[in-house]
Write the structure tokens for this entry.
Amino acid sequence: MSGEIVFDRVSKRYEGRSGDALHELSLEIPGGAFCVLVGPSGGGKTTALKMVNRLIDFDAGDIRIDGRSVRDLSPVELRRGIGYVIQQVGLFPHMTIGENVGTVPRLLGWDKRRIRQRCEELIELVGLEQGDLRRYPAQLSGGQRQRVGLARALAADPPVLLMDEPFGALDPITRFRLQTELRRLHREVAKTVVFVTHDIDEAISMGDRIAILRQGGVLAQYDTPDAILAHPADDFVAQFIGEDRALRRLALKTLGDVKLEPGSDGERGSRVPPETTLRNAVSLMIETGTPQVIVVDGERELGVFKLEDAGGLL
Amino acid sequence: MRTAAGPIVIPNFGKGNACVTGNHAFCWGWVRQHWGDTLQPALVQHVELTAIAVGIGFTLAFALALVAHRYGRIEHPINIVSALLYTIPSLALFQLLIPFTGLTETTIEIALVSYTLVILFPNVVAGLRSAPEDVLEAARGMGLTRRQILLRVELPLAIPAIVGGLRIAVVSTISIATVAAFLGDYGLGDPIFRALDDPTPFKTEIYSAGALAVALALVCDAGLVLLRRVLAPWAGRRLA
């Protein structure tokens, strides 16, 4: 099970509404990819997401996971094999964290020891403590709750994870921390993630593929973040990703990713580590009024990055 | 009901000590003396009356609430009927029932059950509905069946509201049940009515029976609070 998801000309119209919520959406999400659905409200991104686990039914077309139509299984069976995370988390308030995380394994009839082991494993994976397993959701902070939501979705090790604006209700600092950890987690667990957000910054920083949907559920562009920023398909996409798309592209690369020029002694410029993004490097140049930064690894000079090189990289 | 044709009522003074014959405010001696023949049997009857009424009322309310939860349309009619029932004064309701069920315990229980139903039904329905939308969506999204959602999510989350309803139902039933003695010699209302029958009502008998009713209500209420803590340890006090 690699978790490849294919949307094949999927359409949906809600009763009593004019116009489609989703219009002939075709999308191939390779197994193990992190695909972000992004767009303004009314673009049908949440509708598309909820069709994968059939919380919403589609009128036409088909959705296949690993070549098998989602309609081949009963909704209940299908959902037990797909992780699902929502913005409000939806933890069961009357169950402990451990019982929450063990929900799907219990439904699948795992024995108690295996469930407990899996819970202990997951609580570590999402950065909580073993003692938290015995606490109730009301005793946790918003960020901790969403970590539990993630652990619960991963419990039965599903190949596909659906996330509906999972960090939308969190404060910026917590959101950034969870975004970073989700990326790390995605590298570790190799699952296909479909992630809905209306925040283009989040889409660019999280996704290795981005699908931009516009009003009426029409797919405007589907590509890697870098390709979308470099070549927006039309005016809508260009406007949606913002006038500062050159800077956004620079944010995708770090100084360690690019070829540096050899530095000469006595050169001026801020000394920065190779993990610095190109965007931050350029920002520093503007701030200090020197058109270059010196990249250093501890005491060792790795080279120099010049402002004029930044343009050439785009 | 005691009529002129009934047995002659002898004032329940017991052995005449000064307190009793003087009808002082409260005579412990009388209470000790008549615990076995008056107060205790009345208390036991009262507990029975209440337990049967709340038991049947809860079962009916619970079943109706489950149906109403599943088919939303019947909730409103049930609420109207039960609200109408509640507006009928208990004495009047007893009188209405006498032609059908006579001066029996059944008459009393029918009236008491109706009142508990009125209190419990909306509480159970509200409890079942108290599961937050995001919790239900997560449950559906994880592949719980409709039945599993009811049993594992909605019912446990309804416990605080259900117990809250039970508390009101039990306490008000205990209180209304004292009026039941109007129909016959049942419960803690019986010593009270008996004392009132006398031209100079015996204060100790009225006070002691009344105090027992209050104590019974308090004990039951405390027991239910404890029950909620055991059944719903996750619920803070503000949810009660």
